[in-house]
Please model this.
Amino acid sequence: MRAALPRRDPAWLGRLFWTGAALALLWPMLVATEFRPWVLFSDQSRGPTLRFLSAFVPPAAGADFLWLVARETWRTVAIATAGITLALLIAIPATLSSTRVLSVSALSGRMAPLAAVLRQGVRWLLVLLRSIPELVWALVFVRVVGLGPTAGVLAIALTYGGMLGKVYGDILESSDEHATRCLLANGGGRLQAFAYGLLPENAAELTSYTVYRWECAIRSSVVLGFVGAGGLGQQLDNSTKMFAGDEVATMLLVFVVLVALADRTSAWLRRALS
Amino acid sequence: MKPARSAPAANQTYRLAPPLFDARCKACWFGVGLLALVVASFWSLDLQWRAFLSPDAGRSMARFVGEFFPPDLSAGFVRKVVAGAIETLAMSALGTLLAAGFGLLLALPASRTHDGDRAWARAPTRLLLNALRAVPELVWAALLLISAGLGPFAGTLALALHTTGVLGRLFAEAIENAAPGPAAALRTQGVDALRVLLYATLPQVLPQLISYALYRWENNIRAAAILGVVGAGGLGQLLSFHMGLFQMGKTATVLCAMLLLVAAVDALSYAIRRLLAR
Model:
């Protein structure tokens, strides 16, 4: 004989409660984000959208326009590369001066107070650089140096300098410090200990992280164009504002290909390094 | 014979560094190429170092920073900034929620769950997911302004689109990597695909899917804070609005709110990770 099945779902109270709670949480969010999907299908938005989208095919392929896109694509890559190069100028000294393993005084007990304060100070500076988004830096620099790639390069340099410095520090501190300490204890200078102890041990990891960040910088240099820092983003912004769907289509395609290429190159380089 | 350089050293502590500079000097070519790229970049960008490094620029920079003080802390404006921060949070949460839903819907055709599955939609769905993922949130937002209008709705949709690409791919991989046993057991009993998913595959991968979604939410809060710069709502919109009007005191307040929000999210996620890792 089968046991009598309960007539009602035994967990109904819990289910009802959690559904109610989810709705009660969701409702204010929907209000705050002005979530009105029907706006997308209203008459005043459907017309422009359809016109914009129908202009996507065929993508713009005039010789002049393609030449412009090629130039802007190179500028995007160049902004990212120059930005990363300058970021290294920030990150490498910051890493050298903030790595605890390279402390001579820490060899015998505690780090000297002045050195400890300096190291912590540099770390906080890196955190500050890193926590301001590059887009905000770019907005600030566009104000100071005007529209153009300089603002983009500086924005990438500062944010990525903070990121690289922080992560380089983490990589060096988590590595095996035996060789470095040995060199320092036997009278080697800090730079010597770094070049012959820490660097050979971590070179592959450091390079691979840098290449990965270069790939990220290419993506963000497109985004920076939207606030006037030059490159593909700026052209994309202009064409969107002029409702030139065919140009937008071409640039989106180029952008997707560029990101995929950077992705491949960086994956290949990192595999070659490891 | 090639030396067995990939074999692990007997003593792991003293293994040699990887051969970055080997005899054929791949690294030299790499270095030369890199140098050429860097030089070409700096040469082709007409960077205005003079404008940036001149004493004049220094003065204008100092004046610019000086204008940030004092930040506008009047009650009315602070309330507006708090509302902006809440809007940012709501955008990120709703965007991630939508993305998790659509990501799961797209992850199902994008995954091959068993050997008999022809999964004809796998390649096209993955292509779609990759395209969604390759376009950054901000670009989506700029495009969506045309149909959704200015405001947080465009930002929410932009976050949802980009995150759908990211989560869909991660979800598909999680589903493909789930242990096949339970699903196979149900399938051999003749249970249909939907129930196999609901009672075998999904319960296995759900914790992983939730942790992916939470991780993306954390990223999206940071992204939502700046999305508004193109007019898509939240703190970013306040920032670009007041900066455009040269109201630097108000700009400073919005910047502080942004930093606080990002720092709070960082601290919270760090604490949760520590708690979970213990």
Summary: Chain B has a mean pLDDT of 83. Chain B touches chain A through 64 residues (CB under 8 Å). Residues 29 and 152 of chain B are 49 Å apart (CA to CA).
